[in-house]
Specification:
The protein has 286 residues and is of the alpha/beta class. It contains eleven helices and six strands.
Length: 286
Amino acid sequence: MERELWKRVYRMVIDTAKGSSIKWAKFDDARIVLTYLWAVLHDRPTSWACCKQNWPIYDRRSDLPTPSTMTRRLRKEGVQKLLCAIEKIAVKHLPALLCRWIDAKPLPIGGSSGDKECGYGRAASAKARGYKLYAVAEAYKGFVAWAIAPMNYNEARVATDLISSLDRPGYLIGDTAYDSSRLYDLAASKSIQLVAPKRMPQSGLGHHKHSPYRLRSIELSKKPFGIDMLKCRDGIERMFGQLTTFGCGLKPLPNWVRTKVRVENWVRAKIIFYNIWRMYVSPNKI
């Protein structure tokens, strides 16, 4: 499977990069991205991919960037844009749906880590230290918007940026963490109806002002259409499960993936391979 994934991603990078680079650079953006993706595909540090003996024989003729070059170039705008383009290219032809889901997945790290950018917060039925993958997903296109933030960030806080990035109308299904009038109004400004269960289902509405879109969500959740949408929200849970369990998926963050920038790059590369896996290697997962 790894060979098939690599053949697909290699062609995508070469076709998309088209020789883009920075002035006077020895290695173009495509070589930097391919070197990084080779390391992520095998769950190895970037320095591992900078050694020719870790590549197939037919790929050892080309020069490879040094670890310091990789660290510097991975932060450049051109390389980041290329990674983002590769992430979208595998699913750009898939149909868009009206119903999307929003949720978060914890990415814990060890308690003895010196990473000062991570946070200590709620994970899955426990407390942990690390980051979270906050995501909006849909059944065909996978993760259409996502962000990395410390574990202690409130899901509704990050949802503000995620919802603002959406560009199509429809329904957005979340859990009780997203039952906020502010989020309902923000979603409505994008022609999106947020649907989430009440935080306290047995309580009344009180006497303070509520967003009309929150009131509509409460009404929808009592009707068969809304009940079915809420039941389908576990689709994003299955998607998180696929992302973490296929051959070279997003396993627990390794020791060399620390600080927010490196976590973002690592997660993006894993989502790239996940998209290719769903599209070409195991299309029945879509």
